[in-house]
Design brief:
With 145 residues, this protein is of the alpha/beta class. It has helices spanning 13-20, 29-40, 48-59, 69-77, 89-96, 106-118, 127-133, and strands spanning 9-11, 44-47, 82-85, 121-124, 140-142. The chain is built from seven helices and five strands; from the N terminus they run βααβααβααβαβ.
Amino acid sequence: MPELRIPPLLLDTHIWIWVMDGREGEMSAGALEAVHAASARGGLLVSAISAWEVAMLQAKGRLRLGMDTAEWVRRALAAPGVRVADLTPEVAVDSAELPGEVHGDPADRMLMATARRTGATLVTRDGRILDSARSGYLAVLDATP
């Protein structure tokens, strides 16, 4: 009998922040359960672009981490079950060639391309990403409560 392969979960930046900061009420119970299960099996991915987004949010004053940004990122990437999804040249090219109508946020495009390239399901509450995924070319888990 072939082994059932469960795809990894790629956390959108806001989901990563909420999980790491214990703001689990920001997500649906189903998404939270899926994130915990993926963590237990080493199946959580965080894109390198999310570290950039966290740093930009902190620099703009839109996020308060309570510690140095580099330290927060280091700790958050060391959380159980988390692996870094590298920002590769292939992901960069794929992000410019996503099918269908996709909004122009470069970081979101990188996340979408990373999910497609790695075979991951993107966990998000971003309405624009969820709308784009309705065309069927991107696997998403809607974390909206």
